[in-house]
């Protein structure tokens, strides 16, 4: 793990040097390494590290109160103003350091032929996820003209529906590559290079099918006619077990710990419970307190006290997020099977016969989520017994759609973009903007980074940050 974080530090030095010494600051079409090829076993750890570092250190510590699963955090855009630093860092790292490097890996793998299909598939799936998260943060982003500076020095920005359909296409491409891969003479991906699955293509196929369903659910919410595609992907192998979860592990030591704890140890003290930095948001309290759900005890300490309230930091007289959650070795999760179970429950209740039973999927999703936090998560500290889980889940009634939406929100705990997507897509739980907000709703989008506006004349004008994205149409 220490190797990963040394790579992140080098990347940071490079990125800052690029920003302050070049005119084409965030030219998403220029290879930042000026290289024509890339060793997957060197580049993939870099990409995983860059993705996770940005997601946990910046998005995680600064937008987790937008969806209000945490009561308050530092320098948050939740009142409507998105800083250029927040937007620029995320944009620059994901377009340049991630997509730029993945495009090199993908091009090399394609040139090598079927023996590198495994590399090509992994790079393609990671690109699909990156474009999906970019459009969920900004809506219109470069996709069709991105990463090709020779032909598109000022790439146009695509509508969200176009980007999401592109994500689906990338998932299909990755799956086709997996299906056609050659095991004879196959490129050897070292286990440490593929932080999700150690090169196991069977798990990558399950993940990519599941990622495709995530994109299709957003397309459907926006009004696109994708029901036949959803029916088809429901017939493929999707995530069902926590052993298939996609996550980046953290070792937990200095320089290799989750940024949620890192911000506490750097500026305050040893842990969250003693320093009162991150508290549960009101929706967590309202959905879990007194429900019998074991996640209440797994997530919240001093949970016999009142919550701090949204837009407020906790104090010794309020509940606080547990050290079980705010710890150095907490993994950064990209996808869990509970998300897929609950999509199936939603679709079943909406008439998709191929989704199975709404009640069964609903209970499977809750069970998988509790088991993740109380049994299966690496480094688990507090346990939820099978008996306690079964008692709670078996006692649940058949769900309404709002019940399913609430559970989708809970299952996305500590996944900042996914939780934000759920509350924007479903409008459940109902969230009010924080006091003193400049916008009329919760934050709906980021503004484009100033450097991209200055360097790409095709950048659209920013819209008010409370304007809903296309996928919020329904």
TrEMBL record:
Database matches in Gene3D superfamilies: 1.25.40.390
Alphabetical UniProt keywords: Lipoprotein
Keyword Nucleotide-binding included in the entry's annotation: no
Pfam annotation, one family: SusD-like_2
Entry keyword annotation includes Lipoprotein: yes
Protein known as: SusD/RagB family nutrient-binding outer membrane lipoprotein
Organism: Hyunsoonleella aestuarii
